[in-house]
């Protein structure tokens, strides 16, 4: 599958960036990427370079050609020729290299994506030592990418289709007596064989007697799963197209505990509310209230944000949460996943589904119903129906 954007798509991305740089009176954008899972995609979106290890920078001037800066120790890490940005530099301290170039070119203001979570401290200190003013562009750059182009949408769908196949691989492997890791392993093999490379981050919430503890963990490779265990695999991947996909459904052979079943009923209402609320013109706050309002009256609380934008960055702005008045636009891709924790912090329920924002409401990207699974279902039994 050819995942390199067309020249027109690349030009569209740079045009969006440069238009906003002009509005912010900034001379250039510095984009940081890191191998820290979920944050490598910013570099791919602006340069085509696929990160393997360490970190990298792309610099897009408001006027002039883009260039990239890599740490010297990463000279032979990654296929640099894949990038469409030909001007590539290697420096012992990339932040100092960028700062020197900015100073030599007389740049007064630099927009920076990644200074809050991504950039190594040595580069932040080096950049900050120059006279150039640094502008925090973390939210701005996420918002620029949030609305997907017609060329991007099929690439987004490709990742979700692969992710859904992974869920069915998990269900096919599910059998009490196997470990959580053994049940997850076929999905991981499927993902890697189909081009995800390193970009998988799969966790599990689990527990006995039809309830799951509220802390996300790596799948256990020692303890056999019991038939009354509740398993909530959070299947998160970026397929070969680079776009992240998130998916989760409950698996419980012997069924859900009573209070978890009560939360499950509200969860089904919440996803119906999401379909209605994820309409262009509504705000992120509107969606949060519509979704989490379905849990009013239950002794529960949110474990983290109700949802977020998702693209080549796993967790991007806008976040779906209280007080966020960002207006949603058509073709934004939004992951909805309220982490619903019981009042005593002892149990939770968690599902993930991703939607495309449309003028009429949210389009669910997977074909899997919002239900709990016993573990013996197959796609032909449930798609379009109820197990």
The helix/strand class is alpha+beta
CATH topology of the largest domain: Creatine Amidinohydrolase
Count the E strands.
18
- Kindly report the name of the CATH homologous superfamily of the largest domain: Creatinase/methionine aminopeptidase superfamily
Q: How many helices in DSSP terms?
A: 10
Strand order of the biggest β-sheet = 4-3-2-1-5-6
Strand percentage = 15-25%
Tell me what you see in this structure:
The protein is an alpha+beta fold and 387 residues long. It is built from ten helices and 18 strands. It has two domains: 7-146, Creatine Amidinohydrolase, Chain A, domain 1 (3-Layer(aba) Sandwich), CATH 3.40.350.10; 152-382, Creatinase/methionine aminopeptidase superfamily (Creatine Amidinohydrolase, Alpha-Beta Complex). Helix content is 31%, strand content 21%. It is globular. The mean pLDDT is 94.
What key attributes describe this structure?
alpha+beta, 387 residues, six-stranded mixed sheet, Creatine Amidinohydrolase, Chain A, domain 1, 2 domains, five-stranded antiparallel sheet, 10 helices, 18 strands, Creatine Amidinohydrolase
Show the helix and strand layout.
Layout: H1 7-23, E1 28-34, H2 41-47, E2 55-61, E3 67-71, E4 88-91, H3 94-104, E5 109-113, H4 121-128, E6 133-136, H5 138-146, H6 152-173, H7 180-193, E7 203-207, E8 230-238, E9 244-247, E10 250-251, H8 258-277, H9 284-292, E11 300-302, E12 307-309, E13 316-320, E14 333-336, E15 339-342, E16 348-350, E17 353-357, E18 362-364, H10 379-382
Parallel strand pairs: 1-5, 3-4, 5-6
Antiparallel strand pairs: 1-2, 2-3, 7-8, 8-9, 8-10, 11-15, 12-13, 12-14, 14-17, 15-16, 17-18
């Amino acid at each position: 599958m050819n995942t390199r954007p067309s020249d027109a798509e690349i030009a569209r991305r740079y045009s969006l960036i440069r238009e906003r740089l002009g509005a912010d009176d900034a001379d250039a954008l510095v984009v940081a990427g890191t191998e820290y899972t979920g944050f490598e995609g910013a570099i791919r979106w602006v340069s085509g370079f696929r990160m393997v290890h360490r970190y990298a920078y792309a610099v897009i001037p408001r006027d002039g050609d883009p260039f990239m800066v890599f740490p010297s120790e990463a000279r032979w890490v990654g296929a640099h020729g894949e990038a469409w940005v030909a001007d590539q530099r290697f420096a012992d301290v990339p932040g100092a290299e960028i700062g020197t170039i900015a100073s030599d070119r007389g740049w007064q203001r630099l927009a920076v994506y990644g200074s809050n979570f991504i950039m190594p401290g040595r580069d932040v200190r080096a950049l900050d030592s120059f006279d150039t003013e640094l502008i925090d562009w973390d939210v701005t750059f996420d918002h620029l990418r949030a609305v997907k182009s017609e060329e991007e949408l099929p690439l987004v769908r490709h990742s979700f289709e692969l992710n859904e196949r992974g869920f069915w691989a998990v269900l096919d492997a599910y059998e009490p007596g196997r470990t959580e890791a053994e049940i997850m392993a076929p999905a991981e093999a499927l993902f890697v064989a189909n081009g995800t490379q390193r970009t998988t981050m799969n966790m599990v919430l689990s527990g006995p007697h039809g309830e799951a503890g509220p802390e996300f963990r790596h799948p256990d490779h020692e303890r056999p799963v019991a038939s009354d265990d509740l398993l909530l695999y959070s299947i998160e991947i970026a397929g070969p197209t680079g776009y992240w996909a998130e998916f989760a459904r409950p698996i419980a052979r012997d069924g859900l505990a009573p209070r978890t079943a009560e939360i499950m009923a509200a969860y089904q209402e919440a996803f119906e509310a999401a379909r209605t609320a994820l309409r262009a013109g509504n705000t992120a706050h509107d969606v949060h209230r519509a979704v989490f309002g379905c849990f009013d009256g239950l002794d529960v609380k949110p474990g983290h944000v109700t949802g977020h934008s998702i693209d080549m960055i796993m967790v991007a702005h806008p976040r779906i949460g209280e007080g966020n008045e960002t207006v949603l636009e058509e073709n934004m891709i939004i992951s909805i996943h309220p982490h619903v924790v019981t009042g005593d912090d002892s149990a939770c329920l968690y599902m993930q589904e991703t939607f495309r924002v449309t003028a009429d409401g949210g389009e669910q990207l997977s074909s899997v119903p919002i239900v709990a699974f016993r573990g013996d279902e197959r796609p032909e039994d449930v798609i379009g129906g109820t197990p």
